[in-house]
Amino acid sequence: MKIISPNYIYTNNTLLSDIAIAYEKKIIKLAPLDELTKEFPNVDIEILEKNSLLMPGLINAHVHIEFSANKTELSYGDFMGWLYSVIENREELIGGCDAGCISKAIENMLISGITTFGAISSHGMDLSACENAKQNVVFFNELIGSQATMADALFTDFLSRLDASKGVKRDGFYPAIAIHSPYSVHPVLIKKALRIVKDENLKLTAHFMESKAERDWLDKSDGDFKEFFVNLLKQKTAVSGSKEFLEYFNGYNTLLTHVVEANEDELQNISNNNHTVIHCPISNRLLGNKTLNIKELNNKNINWVVATDGLSSNYKLDLFEEMKISLFSHGDAPLLDFAKALIDGVTINAAKALGLNTGEIKEGKNTDMIVLDLDGPPNDELAIHLILHRYNVSKVYINGQKEI
Ligand SMILES: [Zn+2]
Q1: In degrees rounded to 5, what are phi and psi of residue 160?
Q2: CATH for 58-354, among 3.20.20.100, 3.20.20.140, 1.20.1270.10, 3.40.630.120?
Q3: Which has the closest alpha carbon to 229: 112, 328, 147?
Q4: Ligand 1 centroid to 310 CA: how many Å?
Q5: How high is the pLDDT of residue 301?
Q6: Which pLDDT score, from 0 to 100, does residue 124 have?
């Protein structure tokens, strides 16, 4: 056991002063330092500096680490233009991100205070780096393929990646499943994957309603996606309607990424099924997609969290930056309350969505915590300042281990 004594603790929108934490892999007790030292004598004590603020480690629920090679290769501003540029640069993107590039992306997340991430893995090339990462990892093996003739081969490949991830035996690593999107996965494949999710109680995620092209294709088998599907995949109609797609997930508590084009009925379904929406504001902006209607999500009591998406549609994997962009994108949201909600979206609410015992500084929770160096004593508007000032992250603890 160890004791850490920061100047301040910020958790669940509450600021605590001069409270220390006794911890092992889990948080044992929060109390004034003298009380803890009496109860647990002869324990290592780390006393932090003035104006140090300890908070839960950040959780990035959606990132594509395999696509970390992109800097300026991809075209931004329009979803279809971006997609074509991904296809055109596919070899360079995938081949260009070797083990070193993947590990660097993971290390950069650690430095910016991310102690847990959800890796969407298209090819399994990031498995070994995620196995060796210091962070907790929910490893989402992604299933993709809309052509029925290819279904068996694609499913076999998916199963072998899933099996490889199940072979990773370390604390804080969780094999999971991603269904790419309604337009790109054949219902036969979706149903087979969902059987595994149910039988093995795995976490599940999918992209949903990211672009107008997706909306038009699913609604009418028309729009900007038509040429893409007809020419590249010889498909004239969408493999699922959006209603049908969402209904596959009834009862599964799925994390749905983007959701910026969802309609009233779809949001109601998402609410009824306690799905979580993953908000990636930088990705949405760069790909010419809409801004997520968070007000409507709140009206419908839908849990939402904040994530970076991959470096194929972002310039850094930093949740403080992501929160700041969101804060400025939602100009009509009440500033302080929205800042608090954003912080919940990278801590407690993200932990809940991923089903992990973390995201809070509380007895019994996993010891995932970071220390920020504030400029001075925090005030009632701390949530805003955390997002605006990008304070230095000086220490990072994951499952009780000091990693920075
Ligand atoms: Zn994504």
Answers
A1: -70, -35
A2: 3.20.20.140
A3: 147
A4: 6
A5: 98
A6: 96
Ligand 1 centroid vs 385 CA: distance in angstroms? 28
Beta-ladder partners of 142: 178
Question: Which of 155, 235, 163, 150 shows the shortest CA–CA distance to 190?
Answer: 155
CA-based angle 27:347:242, to the nearest 5? 135
Give start and end residues of each alpha helix (H) in 125-211.
Answer: 127-131, 151-166, 187-200
Question: Beta strand 27-31 with 20-23: parallel, antiparallel or unpaired?
Answer: antiparallel
Q: Look at residue 58 in the predicted model and tell me its pLDDT.
A: 98
CA of 259 to the centre of ligand 1 (A): 11
- Which pLDDT value is given to residue 93? 86
Hey, what long-range contacts does 164-171 have (CB within 8 A, 24 or more apart)?
A: 164/124, 164/127, 165/121, 165/124, 165/127, 165/139, 165/141, 168/127, 168/130, 168/131, 168/139, 170/131, 171/25, 171/399
CA nearest neighbour of 117 among 59, 156, 171, 166: 59
Q: How far is the CA of 324 from the centre of ligand 1 (A)?
A: 20
What class has domain 2-56+361-402? mainly beta
pLDDT at site 166: 98
- Please give the Cα distance from 172 to 366 (Å, whole number): 10
Q: What is the pTM of this model?
A: 0.98
Give the integer Cα–Cα distance in Å for 68 and 119.
Answer: 12
- Domains 2-56+361-402 and 58-354 fall in the same CATH topology: no
pLDDT of residue 313: 95
> In the chain, where are the structural domains located?
2-56+361-402, 58-354
Distance 283 CA to ligand 1 centre (A): 9
What pLDDT does 380 receive?
96
Give the residue numbers marked as catalytic.
Answer: 210
390: pLDDT confidence band, cut at 50, 70 and 90?
very high
